[in-house]
Amino acid sequence: MIKKSILTILLALMFILQGCSSDKAKSKTEPSQKDNYILTSIQNKKLVVNNKDKDFILKGADGKVVIYDIFATWCPPCRKATTHLNSLQKKYKDDLVVIGITIEDNIDNEKLQNFKKSFDINYTLVNSKNNRLLADKIVDSLKLGDRYPIPVMALYKDGKYITHYIGSIEEEFIESDIKRALGK
Predict the structure, then answer these.
(1) CA distance linking residue 154 with residue 166, whole number of Å
(2) I need a labelling partner for 183 at 20 to 30 A (CA). Which of 123, 156, 172, 175 fits?
(3) Range of the domain at 109
(4) pLDDT beyond 80 at 71
C-alpha cells in the first residue's frame, strides 16, 4: 500500500514538473521576445544593445560593423586577439565598433583598466552585470552550447549576424569579413 502511494506521488510530480519545463521552452523560443542590455564601459559610458531573435543592435552604430568580443583577462588567446582588434579598430575607426565583453564575474574596473593599458587597447571594454547575460545570449544564438570556449567574436552589421570566430583567429580573416560586410 505504501509503495502504491509513493508511486502515485512520484508519477504526479513527474507530470507537474514536465508541464513546467515545456512552458519554459515555449517562452524562450517565442518569436517576439525582445531584450535590452545596458552595458557600462570602464569609462562609465552607457551602451545599449537591443536583441530581437538573432539580431543584436548596438544603439548609435547604424551602418557600422560591430564586433562583440567575449573574453577573459586571464585567457592567452583572448590576450592575443587584442592585437588584431586594436589594428582593425584603427584601420576601420569610422566603420567599426569593437566591444570587449568580459565574462569574469565581479572583476573590478581597475583590473580592466590595467588590462586595457597593458595591451594598449583602443576599443571599448564593458564591465556590468549585463555582461554575462549578453554574452550568453549571443553564444546561445550561435548555438555554441552552455560551456563555450573563449574568445568568441561575433560580427554584426546593423544588428544582423555576419559571422563569428572561436579561439585564436588571424586578423586577415576578420578583416576580410569586415570588408565584405561594408561592401568594400
Answers:
(1) 9
(2) 123
(3) 34-182
(4) yes
